[in-house]
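[step 3/7] inverse_fold.run input=structure_tokens len=80
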């Protein structure tokens, strides 16, 4: 599915995840060219929810897709 064909639900999930993370990459902390990445890919049944979105800058997002950064799981429990 191309970016332009993403559902409004998907776009909302990415927007909420970006707000949750203060528009910063969860990997390196950059605030430049921020993207949303499915933790469980849409093609494998990943939900279009903020809980399934990892916020990443373009550089880190490209590394995820190149296999240079591996996302195994994500822990949303309170870290305090």
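[step 3/7] decode complete -> sequence:
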């Amino acid at each position: 599915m191309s970016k332009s064909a993403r559902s409004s639900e998907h776009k909302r999930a990415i927007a909420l995840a970006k707000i949750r993370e203060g528009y910063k990459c969860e990997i390196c902390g950059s605030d430049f060219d921020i993207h949303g990445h499915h933790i469980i890919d849409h093609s494998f049944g990943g939900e279009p929810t903020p809980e399934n979105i990892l916020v990443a800058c373009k550089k880190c997002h490209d590394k995820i897709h190149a296999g240079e950064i591996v996302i195994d799981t994500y822990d949303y429990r309170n870290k305090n």
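[step 4/7] annotate
Residues 24-74 form one domain.
The two ends are 37 Å apart (CA to CA).
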